[in-house]
Design a protein that fits this description.
- By secondary structure, this protein is α/β, with parallel strands linked by helices.
- The chain has a single domain, classed as P-loop containing nucleotide triphosphate hydrolases (Rossmann fold, 3-Layer(aba) Sandwich), CATH 3.40.50.300.
- It is 33% helix and 24% strand.
- The protein contains 10 helices and 12 strands.
- β11 and β12 form a beta hairpin.
- α4 packs parallel to α6 and α5 packs across α6.
- It is globular and about 65 Å long.
- The structure holds adenosine-5'-diphosphate (ADP), iron/sulfur cluster (SF4) and magnesium ion.
- The site of magnesium ion (MG) has 2 residues, from α1.
Length: 312
């Protein structure tokens, strides 16, 4: 895909999110930065992958785009409109064009709704006439590889894999401009996981929406993403064309992640000092003094960004 020919469908600029720990936590009142100046573009028709360990800020980022979490600074532009600055009505209308698939399909649906009601929920909310919804429903269900007789089943009568397909059908029903996928396969067994990955690829090729796929699993992202970013402790550490990053990872953390695909294990990494490079404690190349400060995210060329003092 040639970057210059495609327009950004979504532009995320300098997003900072700060959480104050609640009264039930041991560190009551303490603030943590879940996102620290996140910026990237998602181009039309591309899948932008975001890979990071648990706690790196992946879900927070998608929640900011969906309006579930408010950033302290930053902008989110959909087709050039900053959705954090427009009035509620305009924002609601723009968000109708964003599909969202969360990690846990069971938590994402009303257990008392039949499949036909779950899938048609956003269409009804968008005011699509009933006759048209009835006409669309079989195509939608078939496009996610489900038989039509699931339409009258309840969530508990489906396997997790089937239910995730229902949630995906609901997300694509609105013909989204942007589809957000939050670890869409992590609750599934490995066979179902590969079926859902194949389905997501087919749907994207067919519908051509822009998409963000977040996952702790670089392997899942590597199957689907055109470009990807590596996230740690709320900072992007590397970003580039997926194939280039996978074939030639530059950041020491990305190198470890790429190796972990071969080793089939990913080590969780926790930032110790918020003012240091988040990979400091684990990096075998660290420069003792210099790396105690966060390096800037620099552009190596128009296709690759990296945050590491070895390149600055
Ligand atoms: N509602 C919240 N209140 C306080 N801290 C939160 C909240 N949600 C997430 N966090 C913290 O923010 C950081 C990023 O979390 P999250 O976005 O869920 O990461 P990921 O999806 O990558 O696992 C973590 O340290 C997490 O504990
Ligand atoms: S900035 Fe320093 S500690 Fe961080 S990844 Fe680069 S070399 Fe390692
Ligand atoms: Mg998450």
């Amino acid at each position: 895909m040639e970057k210059a020919l495609l327009k950004p469908a979504l532009q995320v600029r300098d997003i900072w999110v700060e959480y104050t720990l609640s009264s039930t936590s041991l560190s009551t009142g303490k603030k943590i930065y879940a996102l620290r100046g996140i910026s990237f573009d998602v181009l039309e028709r591309e899948i932008f992958g975001i890979v990071g360990a648990s706690g790196s800020g992946k879900s927070t980022l998608l929640k900011v785009i969906m309006g579930f979490v408010s950033p302290s600074v930053g902008s989110i532009e959909v087709d050039g409109i900053n959705i954090l600055k427009v009035n509620r009505e305009t924002r609601k209308n723009i968000l109708k064009k964003i599909g969202y698939v969360s990690q846990d399909p069971l938590a994402a649906v009303n257990p008392r709704f039949k499949v036909r009601d779950i899938v048609t929920e956003p269409l009804k909310a968008a005011g699509v006439p009933k006759r048209e919804i009835t006409k669309m429903l079989p195509t939608l269900i078939e496009s996610v590889g489900l038989p039509l007789d699931v339409l009258d089943l309840l969530p508990h009568e489906l396997s997790l894999g089937m239910l995730q397909r229902v949630v995906i059908a609901r997300a694509i029903a609105i013909k989204p401009r942007v589809l957000l996928l939050d670890e869409p396969t992590s609750a599934l067994d490995s066979v179902t996981q590969s079926h859902v990955i194949a389905l997501l690829k087919e749907l994207k090729d067919f519908f051509g929406y822009a998409s963000i796929l977040v996952s702790h699993d670089l392997k899942v992202v590597s199957y689907l993403a055109d470009r990807l970013a590596i996230l740690m402790a709320g900072l992007i550490l590397e970003e580039g064309i997926a194939l280039n990053v996978l074939n030639n990872p530059l950041h020491p953390y990305t190198q470890e992640l790429v190796d972990s695909i071969k080793l089939k294990e990913v080590r969780e990494v926790f930032a110790v000092d918020p003012s240091a490079c988040p990979f400091y404690a684990h990096c075998y190349l660290r420069l003792e003094e210099k790396c105690r400060k966060i390096p800037p995210l620099i552009e190596l060329d128009s296709k690759r960004r990296i945050r590491c003092w070895l390149y600055s």
